[in-house]
Amino acid sequence: MARPDDPEYRRLLGEFVPLRIVNLKGIDLNLFRFDTDLTFAVLLMNADGYTYSRFGVQDHTHTTDRMSLAGLKQAMRDVLVAHRAGDVDREAIPDPAQRYTLLDLPAFARSRQARDACYHCHFEGTARFRQLRRDGQFRKEMFFRYPYPENLGITLEVDRNNVVKSVQPGSPAARAGIRAGDRIVRAGRTPIFTTADLQFALDPVADPGSVTLTVQRDGRTLPPMTLSLSAGWRRYDVSWRASVASLPPILGIWGRTLTDAERRQRGIAADRLAILVTFLFPEPVWEPARRGIRTGDVIVAIDGEEWPNLNLRQFHSTFRLKYNVGDRVRVTLLRGNQRIDTTVDCIDPDPG
Amino acid sequence: MRAWRLGIAASGLIGGIVWLAAGWPAARAQEPAVVSWRDDVEAARAEARRSGKPLFVVFR
C-alpha cells in the first residue's frame, strides 16, 4: 500500500525516523499501543512515546479497502504540523514504569507460542484473551475491539482520513448533528487524524455508552457533540481477527462455502448457509467437536436454524459468539441427498 | 568599469545567498529521501530525540 517509490511518500518519510518492527519479542506493549490484529499498522509518535496518530484499518472484506497511500501521506503531513507545534498531551505519554512485553503475560509465557523465534503481532490479542479467560474476566463483548466509524453511523473518506463521507440517517452520529463534509478533530480528549485514531478512541467506550466528538465545519470548530450509543453498538463482523480465531468453541472442521453451481446442484438457496467440510481436525481432543461429521458433508443448519450464507471464518465466528464451552449443538448435514443430524460438544481444546 | 564589475559580483553574491536560503533546501526537499529503516527501538528513539524528528513506526 505504501509504495516506497512514491516521491512524496519518500520525502515525507525523510522527515521522520523510520522504525520497522516485524517481531514483537521484547517489544514494550505499553509504549506501542495499537490494534495488533492488523497486518499493517503505523504509529506516528515522538521520542518520549507520545503517539500523535495511528494508521491502518482492516475488516473482513479486504486488508486495504479502508486505506490509501494518499491517506497515509495526509496523516504524515498532519503529524509533522502537530510535532513542530509541540502539540503533545503529556498525560497520554505511556509511563515507562508500566513497561511490559508478551512474556510478562503468564498465559503467554506458558504457551507453545512463547517458544517461537518470531512473535507475530496478533499473539498479543490471543495472549490477552487467554489471560482474561484464565483470570475469569473474559466476556464475549471483548471480541469487538476497536469499533469502526460505521458503528457510530458514519463513513470516513479513505484519502482524507478524518473527513466524514456520509452519515447514516437515524444513527447516533445523525442524531448528534454530524454531517457529510465535517472533519472530526477530537474524540473525547484524543486528537483524531485518521480512522485508526477514531477506532483507538472508541475502544474504551462502554456498551451502552457515549462519546463526545469535536468537528470542524467550513473551517470553524463547532461545540462538542455527544453521541448516545445504545446496547450492542460495538458489534461488527470480527471473523477476520486472528486473536478472536484462537478462542473456543468451534466445530472441529475446516471447509469452504459451496459455489453457486454446487448450490444449484444441491438445491440450496444462494443466501443460505452451505459449508462444505474439507478437513476434520485430526487430534483426538477434537473428536467431540466433529462427532458424526465427514469430509464431503455440507453443513446447512445449526440447532435447526438455517443461518445466512457465511464464509468459513464467519461461520466459526458466529458459532463462537452464539455458543459456550460445555454446550451441545445439533448440526444438520447434507450427505449426498440425505439430511443427517448429529450432535457435537462445544469443547476447549487447550484449557491449560 | 570597476563599479560595473563590483555590481555584478555583489548581485551574484546576493543571488547565491537568496538561492541558498530558499531554493537549495527546497530543491533538496524535493529529492526522494534515502530511506534507511531502523530496527532498534531505543536507538531510533535516541535518534529522534537528537534530530528533533518524530518516529514513523511500522508493524508488519
What keyword list fits this structure?
heterodimer, A: 352 residues, alpha+beta, 15 strands, 21% helix, B: 60 residues, mainly alpha
Which helices and strands occur, and which strands form pairs?
The complex is a heterodimer of chains A (352) and B (60).
Chain A: H1 7-13, E1 17-21, E2 41-45, E3 51-55, H2 69-84, H3 106-109, H4 123-134, E4 154-156, E5 164-167, H5 172-176, E6 183-187, E7 190-191, H6 195-202, E8 209-217, E9 220-221, E10 225-229, H7 242-245, E11 253-257, H8 260-266, E12 275-280, E13 298-302, H9 312-322, E14 328-335, E15 338-345
Antiparallel strand pairs in A: 2-3, 4-5, 6-7, 6-8, 8-9, 8-10, 11-12, 12-13, 13-14, 14-15
Helix pairs in contact in A: 1-2
Chain B: H1 2-30, H2 41-51, E1 55-59
Description:
- The complex is a heterodimer of chains A (352) and B (60).
- Chain A has 352 residues and is an alpha+beta fold.
- Chain A has helices spanning 7-13, 69-84, 106-109, 123-134, 172-176, 195-202, 242-245, 260-266, 312-322, and strands spanning 17-21, 41-45, 51-55, 154-156, 164-167, 183-187, 190-191, 209-217, 220-221, 225-229, 253-257, 275-280, 298-302, 328-335, 338-345.
- In chain A, helix 1 (7-13) runs parallel beside helix 2 (69-84).
- Chain B is mostly helical.
- Chain B is built from two helices and one strand; from the N terminus they run H-H-E.
- Chain B is globular, with a radius of gyration of 21 Å.
- The chains are: A alpha+beta (352), B mainly alpha (60).
- Strand 1 (17-21) of chain A pairs parallel with strand 1 of chain B.
